[in-house]
TrEMBL record, chain A:
Signal peptide: 1-28
InterPro entries named among the record's database cross-references: SoxY (IPR032711), SoxY_sf (IPR038162), Sulphur_oxidation_SoxY (IPR016568), TAT_signal (IPR006311)
Short name of one Pfam family: SoxY
The protein's name in its UniProt record: Sulfur-oxidizing protein SoxY
Listed Gene3D superfamilies: SoxY domain
Keyword set, alphabetical order: Signal
Keyword Metal-binding in record: no
Residue ranges annotated for the Ig-like SoxY domain, each copy included: 37-138
UniProt source species: Litoreibacter ponti
From TrEMBL, chain B:
Residue ranges of domain Sulphur oxidation protein SoxZ in the record: 10-103
Gene3D superfamilies, A to Z: Immunoglobulins
Name of the protein described by the UniProt record: Sulfur compound chelating protein SoxZ
Highest taxon, organism lineage: Bacteria
Top-level taxonomy: Bacteria, Pseudomonadati, Pseudomonadota, Alphaproteobacteria, Rhodobacterales
SUPFAM superfamilies registered for this protein in UniProt: E set domains
NCBIfam families linked to this entry: SoxZ_true
Organism: Litoreibacter ponti
InterPro entries the record matches: Ig-like_fold, Ig_E-set, SoxZ, SoxZ_dom
Length: 140, 109
């Protein structure tokens, strides 16, 4: 392919448009900030927490989500593509059995759902999964 | 808000001591997220249930903080340990200050 000035310009504007269309970085950083505020910048491990979510959610208004982290005292859910990334925080009391919970959440669009668990020893565990949303929730 | 709010809870009636039981709760509530607009383009103010707790004989099982991303008619499923015969108390806290409660007894043999 012969690279003319016109083609280079076209290429450049194409990538720019793509970057502005996705718009994910802004929201993702919001979630990152929220997680950093929660953990105080502590290192986050992976593996001791299970996040159950559908691969494809046809209706973003009610997406079933389940979390489970044996030994956790608290699990916080985030959705990084929602206008507000925080979803819910589960605090487990002394009579809680499996440190697991399920609920239904709203997802504005296809995005990552993130769960961060605070363990009994004070460490943190994280799980992340992408949910494809056909019709977004949150109205608008 | 506060019209037509009805909590529903599913708890087994009997269990063995120390057994793990599954509890399902659902409360009818429109959970207005504060993100939607009405037909005139004005933002509909947020009106959600912001906290849900489940206790057994005064001891906490789960305490959930809800954000607007929780679906209409908030649903929760979780597991509890039942050491003795007693009563579960479920409490939902509405943005408008209303508190809804529901109790279920369980017999432990």
């Amino acid at each position: 392919m012969e690279l003319t000035r016109r083609k280079i310009l076209a290429l450049g504007s194409g990538t720019l448009a793509f970057a502005s269309l996705t718009g994910l970085p802004a929201f993702a950083s919001l979630t990152d900030e929220a997680i950093a505020a929660l953990t105080g910048g502590a290192e986050i491990g992976e593996g001791a927490i299970t996040l159950t979510a559908p691969e494809i959610a046809e209706n973003g208004n009610t997406v079933p989500i389940g979390v489970s982290a044996p030994g956790a005292t608290q699990i916080t859910l985030y959705a990084d593509g929602n206008p507000v990334p925080s979803v819910a925080t589960f605090n487990f009391g002394p009579l809680s059995a499996s440190r697991s919970a399920s609920t239904r959440i709203r997802l504005a669009k296809t995005q990552n759902v993130v769960a961060v668990a605070k363990m009994e020893d004070g460490s943190y565990q994280m799980a992340k999964t992408e949910v494809k949303v056909t019709i977004g929730g949150c109205g608008g | 808000m506060a019209s037509g709010v009805k909590p529903r809870v599913k708890v087994p009636k009997k269990a063995a001591a120390g057994e793990t039981i599954t509890i399902k709760t659902l409360i009818s509530h429109k959970m207005e997220s504060g993100q939607r607009k009405d037909s005139d383009g004005n933002i509909i103010p947020r009106s959600i249930i912001n906290r849900f707790t489940a206790d057994f004989n005064g001891q906490n099982v789960i305490d959930v903080t809800l954000e607007p991303a929780i679906s209409t008619n908030p649903f929760f499923e979780f597991e509890a340990v039942v050491p003795e015969t007693g009563e579960f108390t479920f409490t939902w806290y509405d943005d408008d200050g209303d508190v809804y409660t529901e109790s279920k007894e369980i017999t432990v043999s």
